[in-house]
Specification:
Blueprint: H1 6-11, H2 14-21, H3 30-40, E1 48-52, H4 58-67, E2 70-75, H5 78-90, E3 97-101, E4 114-120, H6 129-139, E5 140-148, E6 151-153, H7 159-169, H8 178-187, E7 194-204, H9 212-223, H10 227-230, H11 233-251, E8 254-264
Parallel strand pairs: 1-2, 1-4, 2-3, 4-5
Antiparallel strand pairs: 5-8, 6-8, 7-8
Length: 279
């Protein structure tokens, strides 16, 4: 492992830091979201799944464990890819899950080869969102599902919080709401296909401030085995605590949704009689 300096660790964005400490970065909602998507996207052992922004491997590995399907995870961070490969081996699914290094806007796959493309919240980190979604659509089979789990703001958020989160993740974010994300995916079309939403479910976040300290200590004490990093545990805890406290503050104003879109090659007429679930 590379020996990072104090300044290099302090300057790391959240994605790189997660790879450094080997935190098992999860989608919003964690394993319940993985299960929700697997069930409602009808994933089984015959399906082929692509996860965009696989990070340290939680979603890719767990969807393979749940369904027995073949999964490919792609991430821009090479260290995250390596940690994800180790995780897949430890969890006994290295024959089912492959992790590769690459970018969302230039996917190294042929057209129409995946039954499910899982994008979670990664599109928030991408500047050219339309190009990324077009790539998701390109590699998705007709009739296949695009799963997005975007984080958005449910209420007015202080500008300083948005600025601090942007700095932490290394990408500018804006005060996007649920409608922005739903429209972004729904309105994007190619010459041969479009995305038709068939499932959505909304969630809000709990305030976890009182749990942050114990979580930080548990992750660092459990995951840091490298001798060089062991000597930097106080710094790692300080930096990790900074991220967790910042994100907890940000999520007070936020929510997330599970969106499932079906790729269709012909547009159906608008539904006349709509319905709503009884709570």
């Amino acid at each position: 492992m590379k020996k990072y300096t104090h300044d290099e660790i302090i300057k790391m964005d959240y994605s790189r830091f997660v790879a450094l400490i080997n935190e098992r970065n999860r989608p919003s909602g964690g394993i319940r979201t993985v299960h929700n998507v697997a069930v409602n996207a009808f994933v089984n052992e015959k399906k082929r799944v692509l996860e965009i922004g696989s990070n340290t491997g939680f979603t890719s590995v767990n969807i393979a464990l749940l369904t027995g399907c073949e999964v490919v995870g792609i991430d821009i961070n090479e260290e995250s890819v390596e940690k994800a490969r180790i995780y897949a081996e430890l969890m006994g699914v290295k024959d089912k899950v492959t992790f590769i290094h690459g970018t969302a806007t230039s996917l190294p796959f042929k057209d129409q080869v995946f039954d499910l493309v899982w994008a979670s919240n990664v599109t928030s980190f991408i500047s050219d969102k339309e190009s990324a979604i077009a790539e998701y659509m390109r590699v998705l089979k007709p009739g296949g599902t695009l799963a997005a789990v975007p984080i958005y703001y449910r209420m007015k958020v202080p500008t300083l919080v948005i600025d601090n989160v942007s700095a932490a993740i290394g990408t500018e974010i804006k005060e996007w709401n649920k409608g922005y994300w739903k429209e972004l995916f729904s309105q994007l079309k190619t010459t041969t296909a479009y995305l038709d939403i068939y499932y959505e479910k909304d969630f809000f976040y709990e305030d976890r401030k009182s749990y942050i300290e114990s979580y930080v200590n548990e992750v660092i004490e459990t995951n840091i085995q490298d001798e060089f990093l062991k000597g930097n545990k106080p710094l790692l805890k300080e930096r990790f605590r900074h991220f967790m406290e910042l994100f907890n503050e940000n999520l007070k104003y936020a929510g997330f949704s599970i969106f499932l879109f079906q790729k269709k090659i012909m547009k159906d007429e608008v539904e006349l009689f709509v319905s709503h679930e009884i709570a």
